[in-house]
Amino acid sequence: ISTRTIGLPLFTAADQTSYLTSATTVALAAVDPTVQGVASGVGLIEAGLDGGAFAVYLTNLTFTQGRHILVYRAADKVGNTESDQSFAFSVDDTPPVTTVHIGTPTFAAADAVRYVTPQTPVSFTAEDPVVAQVVSGLSRIEVDVDGAGFAVYSSTLTFAEGRHTVRFRALDRVGNVEAAQTVFLRSDATPPLTSLQPSAAFFTAAGKDFAPANFTYTLPAADPVVQEVASGVALTRLSLDNGTLQNLTSYFSLSEGARLALFQSQDNVGNLELLKAATVYVDATAPATALAIGAP
């Protein structure tokens, strides 16, 4: 009577399918039962794989990726041969593949760094691919944030302002481990800073900024570096005299009068500066000089 012993890794599915890897060993053994006080002893064990010819079993067996049927039997020393036994199983040597999903807002820089905000959801999914008709199934996804060590991923992640290195991988039910992937995230929670820049210095009196009509104006903006992160300025908007905010791409000029400029900038992940206001008093009228001649 022959028996089999299956080593690890081993996973038995709900449908009783046995999943192994190419590192899993299968050992065969046999005993010759004593009947009426007689047992000649085990002569040999034979095994055949996937319909192939029987060969004498000598040592532990291992198998390649795919679906297999192992047929085995034992014979005693006088030729009595056991009925064939069989073991159907699948070998899975292929790890899962994980995908990172970065929600909005986000910005992909030219250097492949991904910018996010502390509100951007980051999630992971994984699939265990079917190879040679075999898939043992996904066991878990693991994530390592900033070198803290791999931990089981269970829910969507967000990241505080700063630079973050996220490694991730998945494992299947027989322990095949995906090579760790890495995504570099830069979380930006700070809006740009914008200023009103005239083409020459204002004349300031009584707290008011005066300028001639030939002045031009720009709105230079900078995205400050906080925690080593700045996603960069995406756009600047301008409103004149409470009109509609419009994107500004160049300089602008002001006509005569007390002119109200409202402006703000936004960075590449949507952080929006609070609206700023500046009033410029544009004077385009020259003084009038009169000659007065006294008497006599």
Q: What is the typical, i.e. mean, pLDDT? A: 97
Radius of gyration: 39 Å
Could you give the order of the helices and strands?
EEEEEEEEEEEEEEEEEEEEEEEEEEE
Q: Compute the separation of the termini in Å.
A: 148 Å
Main pleated-sheet profile:
6 strands, mixed
Main sheet strand line-up: 2-3-8-7-5-6
Going by helix content, strand content and strand pairing, the class is: mainly beta
Q: Please state the oligomeric state of the protein chains shown.
A: single chain
Number of helices, where a helix is a run of at least 4 consecutive DSSP H or I residues:
0
How large is the share of residues in beta strands? over 45%
How many β strands by DSSP?
27
Low-confidence runs of at least 5 consecutive residues: none
**Helix residue percentage:** under 10%
